[in-house]
Q: What sequence folds into this?
């Protein structure tokens, strides 16, 4: 069975925007390796002639009229949508500086 | 204390034999009485009583208050609802107040149903036991030392504890059917697309479905009838059956062709579960059904397919929890990157992190073809094998789970072992076909569920067969 290295786990964490403690890195090394080794059984599966399925309904290009809705999710006001924000200002979400 | 059938309750409210207020108060009392089972995250008491008043006033004006008038229900806490927070049982959503309600909730309310509480679940629906809830572990109503199953464990327990006539769950890999089996409830996983996912916290978008947990098939069918059908806010929704699901035809066992899924009766199946299922199959045979074994050779691969596709879609769907627009946000973060990483790391539980990282791995450059694309191709084989089986059989049958409710803590040290609980439920999710778990007796005092599977979009037929099997 192959095991993820410490570097592998740290890379996955970085890609996933997660910070892990040393104890977590060690634990996830073991657990993720077990899971990935289990799913690797698909390596031997014969899928010749088959295409991938990404969705099961067969629906394509479901469209709607290009008009403003005020029902369902669109009934919420801008204020209501900003209510849960940790920081907002002048009707906008406020985040840390990211440039310069 | 128990509940009349849903149609009876609604008729009684509409004819003033009882009031919506009385029904809501009954539910709230039952919720308090069942406190020790930790099935409920929060009551939506104030709003429920207010809605009950509105419904009673409507009835007093001589208007019909709907097909579910005054019927209380409990929603899994991954449904966005007014009246309380919506947390998905995760620390990262503590305090989150939904700015709109799920379509399923709106449709139920339009017919007079009243949400009285939010049920516990594995955080973000990641789990098979509710032990991954960031808040508490729900106890199985039959044995407090055991799990109720998951991830809709709170919903299943609430129904068995008579807290309400029905509860809502979601099923991505078995999360309605499994807790139904462990708790002795009816749990229906509809065809993919039949019920709108708008306003439900997303887990795996290509398999997530919404469905009812009840004590009877008839009640589950009515709830499905009200919720189902195309929704402009969810482009993956399909049309509901033109005949609906409320007036189900009787099941004629004599003309029924039943396929026993060979791959679900292998070594891992507990003897007590096997006996209970065999007994129910014998009863179907005695009622006149033609019973044959059928093999779907790709089924042993279904769990591996699921644990590639599901984490891949989870990692994408959980990317939105970044501490900027809603949810937990790390106060001392010094930069945007810090804010992302610390908010997520301190907000998410271990299982969420596991699934996010597995998903990131199988989608990353160099691994995408070998894992994700391969899994979605094996998925095609599973779909075809089911379609082929349904060309010969009206319904397929097997256990819902290899075991009865296990002890709290038995599988928490071993994520993979926990995943194996889903081994019989995931294939139906990968194929998008409907599947229902119906109580089928018990093994050593613990409930056993029999799983019935139907062809895609055959929910009406499947529910009428289930109604027949329920009575055997």
A:
């Amino acid at each position: 069975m192959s095991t993820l290295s410490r570097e592998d786990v740290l890379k996955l964490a970085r890609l996933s925007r997660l910070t892990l403690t040393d104890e977590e890195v060690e634990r996830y090394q073991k657990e993720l390796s077990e899971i990935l080794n289990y799913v690797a059984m698909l390596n031997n599966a014969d899928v010749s002639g088959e295409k991938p399925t990404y969705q099961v309904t067969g629906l394509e290009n479901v469209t709607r009229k290009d008009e403003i809705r005020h029902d369902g999710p669109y009934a919420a006001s801008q204020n209501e949508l900003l209510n849960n924000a940790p920081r907002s200002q002048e009707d906008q979400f406020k985040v840390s500086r990211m440039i310069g | 204390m128990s509940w009349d059938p849903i149609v009876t309750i609604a008729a009684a409210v509409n004819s003033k034999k009882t009031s919506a207020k009385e029904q809501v108060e009954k539910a709230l009392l039952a919720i308090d009485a069942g406190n020790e089972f930790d099935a409920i995250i929060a009551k939506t008491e104030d709003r429920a009583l207010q809605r009950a008043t509105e419904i009673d006033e409507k009835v007093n004006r001589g208007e019909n208050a709907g097909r579910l008038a005054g019927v209380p229900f409990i929603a899994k806490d991954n449904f966005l609802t007014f009246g309380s927070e919506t947390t998905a049982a995760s620390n990262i959503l503590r305090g989150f107040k939904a700015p709109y309600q799920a379509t399923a909730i709106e449709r139920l309310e339009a017919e007079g149903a009243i949400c009285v509480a939010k049920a516990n679940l594995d955080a973000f629906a990641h789990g098979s036991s509710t032990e991954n809830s960031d808040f508490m572990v729900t106890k199985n109503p039959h044995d407090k030392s055991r799990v109720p199953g998951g991830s809709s464990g709170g919903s299943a327990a609430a129904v068995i504890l008579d807290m309400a006539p029905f509860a809502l769950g979601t099923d991505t890999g078995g999360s309605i059917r499994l807790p139904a089996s462990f708790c002795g409830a009816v749990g229906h996983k509809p065809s993919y697309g039949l019920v709108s996912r708008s306003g439900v916290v997303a887990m795996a978008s290509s398999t997530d479905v919404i469905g009812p947990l009840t004590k009877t098939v008839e009640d589950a069918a009515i709830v499905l009838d009200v919720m189902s059908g195309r929704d402009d806010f969810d482009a993956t929704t399909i049309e509901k059956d033109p005949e609906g699901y409320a007036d189900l035809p009787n099941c004629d066992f004599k003309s029924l062709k039943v396929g026993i899924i060979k791959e679900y009766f292998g070594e891992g199946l507990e003897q007590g579960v096997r006996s209970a299922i065999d007994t129910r199959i014998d009863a179907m045979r005695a009622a006149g059904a033609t019973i044959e074994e059928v093999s779907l050779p790709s089924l042993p691969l279904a769990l591996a397919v699921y644990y590639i596709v599901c984490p891949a879609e989870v990692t994408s769907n959980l990317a939105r929890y970044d501490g900027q627009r809603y949810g937990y946000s790390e106060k001392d973060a010094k930069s945007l990157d810090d804010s992302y990483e610390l908010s997520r790391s301190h907000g998410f539980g271990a299982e969420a992190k596991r699934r996010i990282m597995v998903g990131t791995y199988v989608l990353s450059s160099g691994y995408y073809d070998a894992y994700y694309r391969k899994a979605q191709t094996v998925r095609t084989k599973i779909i075809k094998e089911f379609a082929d089986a349904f060309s010969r059989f009206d319904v397929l049958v097997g256990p819902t789970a290899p075991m009865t409710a296990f002890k709290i803590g038995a599988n928490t040290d071993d994520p993979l072992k926990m995943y194996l609980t889903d081994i019989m439920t995931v294939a139906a999710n990968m194929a998008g076909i409907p599947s229902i778990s119906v109580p089928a007796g018990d093994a050593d005092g613990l409930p056993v569920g029999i799983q019935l599977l139907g062809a895609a979009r055959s929910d009406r037929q499947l529910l009428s067969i289930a109604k027949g099997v329920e009575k055997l």
